[in-house]
Amino acid sequence: MTEWTQFEAARGIVLRVTVGPGGIRAIEINPRRAPVGTRNDANAVLADAGTQLREYFAGVRRQFDLPLDPQGTAFQRQVWKALAAIPYGATRTYREIAEAVGSPRAVRAVGAANGRNMLPIVVPCHRVIGADGRLVGYAGGLDVKKLLLELEARQAASEAAAV
After folding, report:
1. Which of 26, 121, 144, 163 has its CA 20 to 30 A from that of 154?
2. Nearest-angstrom CA–CA distance, 24 and 49
3. Which value, in Å, is the radius of gyration of the alpha carbons in the chain?
4. What is the per-residue pLDDT for 24?
5. Averaged over 77-89, what is the pLDDT?
6. Cβ-proximal residues to 13 (8 Å cutoff; 6+ apart), any chain
């Protein structure tokens, strides 16, 4: 049985988080389709996810500590693990991710796996950019991708200036 919650994480950004028995299965940015399962704002995992995601948008959280239950092929899970290893405030190209998973010629397959990531922000697929540095392909929209990258860049720069 799946349960979900929905909340405004930042101005203009609504998130719907879905959890199953194994952990968080999906995070939808500005969801357009009807939810599946039962709304349960009292679910402890969903409440913790809401807190951590709001902290991320407030600029006080860089990493997430949530039980995740990504649903995908072995290759997709390998790509998602590589995405999770991209440091806060940094970016990687699809080619760099393909090389990181040991399949340097699988750039398109990496792009497809990136597009199937159901845990955006927590598994930071927004940190993957085109070979020429352009922002390409993001399920939440390129405007949200740009916002996330700018948020992280600002936080990283302010912390570097404070050191």
Report:
1. 26
2. 9
3. 16
4. 98
5. 96
6. 29, 30, 57, 144, 147
68 DSSP 8-state letter: B
pLDDT > 90? residue 157: no
Catalytic residue among 122, 125, 147, 149: 125
**Is pTM beyond 0.90 here?**
yes
94 is catalytic: no
**Predicted pLDDT at 90:** 95
From 119, 96, 94, select the one nearest 109 (Cα to Cα): 94
| Structural element, H or E, at residue 108 | helix 107-115
Which two structure tokens, joined as six digits, stand for 62? 């860089």
Phi-psi region of 157 (alpha: psi -120 to 50; beta: other; left: phi over 0): alpha
Please tell me the distance from the alpha carbon of residue 12 to that of residue 18, in angstroms, as a whole number. 20
* Tokens, residue 48: 């913790």
